[in-house]
Design goal:
Radius of gyration: 19 Å
Number of helices: 12
Shape: globular
Strand content: under 5%
Largest sheet: none
Structural class: mainly alpha
Distance between the termini: 25 Å
Number of strands: 0
Length: 276
C-alpha cells in the first residue's frame, strides 16, 4: 500500500510536467522494496486519476466544448466568430488529434509493452526529447492561440502525442514541443495538450482497467491501485493549477535541464550496474 501511495504521488507530480510520468514510474520500480517494474497496466490505470483532475480543473471549458459540439451535431449552426463555433471547432480538433494515438496504440500495443520499457531507451528519450523541447521552446513563435487551430495542426499535435507511447518522451512534452514548432504560445500549447490527452488517457486507462479483471497483470491489488489512482488525482490537480500559472511567466528550460540530468543519471546507474 505504501508503494502504491508513493507511486500515486509520483504520477500526480510528473503526469503534466514535460518530464514523462511513465519514465519516472518505471525507474521508481527499480528502487522500491519489490524492485519490480510497476507495469504498463498499473501506470495506465493510475493515469485515470490524473485525467479526472483535468476534467475537474477545466470543467467549465470542457462543458462549453461538449455543449457546442452536441448542438452542432444535432443541426444547429453558429455565427462566424462566435464562442460557440470556436468551441465546436475545438471539439473537432480534439477528435482529429486523437486519431493517431488510438491507431498506433491499438496496432502496436503488444510490441510497445514488450520492447518500449527498457531503461536505456527511457534515458535516451529523456535527453533527446528534452533538448528538442528546449530548442523549440526557444525558437518557436508565441503568436497563435487555440482559435487558430486547423486540421493540419490538429493532426500534427496528434502525431506528437502518439510518440508518448514510448516511455520517456512525455505526452505533454511532445505536444507542447509540437505546439511551439507550430507557433502557439506556451499557455495555448499546454492547454491543448491537456484537452487532447483526455480521450487517449481515459480510453487507455479504462481499457487496462477492464482487462485487469479478466487478465490480472497488475502486481498491486484493486484496493492499492484505487488508492494510487485517487492519490494521483489529488496531486495532479494541484500540479495543473501551479503549472498553468508557471508558463505565463517562465519558459520550459528548468524541465529541459532536469530531463537531461535524469537521463544522464540513468545511463550512469546502468553502466555501473546499480540498476538493470
Amino acid at each position: 500500500m505504501l508503494e502504491a501511495i508513493f507511486l500515486g504521488i509520483l504520477q500526480g507530480l510528473t503526469e503534466f510536467l514535460p518530464i514523462s510520468s511513465s519514465a519516472h514510474i518505471r525507474l521508481a520500480g527499480e528502487f522500491l522494496p519489490s524492485a519490480q517494474d510497476p507495469g504498463a497496466t498499473f501506470t495506465a490505470i493510475m493515469q485515470i486519476g490524473t485525467e479526472i483532475a483535468v476534467l475537474l480543473y477545466f470543467r467549465n471549458e470542457i462543458s462549453r466544448i461538449f455543449s457546442a459540439a452536441f448542438s452542432w451535431l444535432i443541426g444547429n449552426r453558429f455565427e462566424v466568430g462566435s464562442d460557440e463555433l470556436k468551441s465546436a471547432k475545438l471539439a473537432l480538433w480534439i477528435v482529429i488529434g486523437s486519431i493517431p494515438i488510438f491507431i498506433f496504440g491499438f496496432v502496436g500495443q503488444s510490441y510497445i509493452r514488450e520492447n518500449f520499457r527498457s531503461l536505456y531507451l527511457i534515458a535516451a528519450t529523456l535527453i533527446v526529447f528534452g533538448l528538442l523541447l528546449g530548442w523549440l521552446d526557444r525558437v518557436g513563435k508565441k503568436t497563435k492561440n487555440l482559435d487558430l487551430l486547423n486540421t493540419r495542426d490538429g493532426m500534427s499535435y496528434g502525431f506528437a502525442q502518439s510518440l508518448a507511447l514510448i516511455p520517456g518522451v512525455s505526452r505533454s512534452g511532445a505536444t507542447i514541443a509540437m505546439g511551439r514548432l507550430l507557433g502557439y504560445s506556451r499557455e495555448s500549447a499546454l492547454r491543448y495538450s491537456f484537452l487532447l490527452a483526455i480521450p487517449a488517457v481515459l480510453g487507455s486507462g479504462c481499457f487496462e482497467l477492464i482487462n485487469s479483471f479478466s487478465e490480472p497483470t497488475n502486481k498491486f491489488s484493486i484496493l492499492e491501485t484505487g488508492v494510487a489512482t485517487f492519490t494521483a488525482f489529488v496531486i495532479g490537480y494541484l500540479v495543473i493549477a501551479w503549472l498553468m500559472r508557471f508558463v505565463q511567466y517562465r519558459s520550459f528550460m528548468p524541465f529541459v535541464i532536469y530531463r537531461v540530468f535524469l537521463g544522464s543519471v540513468i545511463f550512469l546507474l546502468l553502466s555501473t550496474g546499480q540498476i538493470s
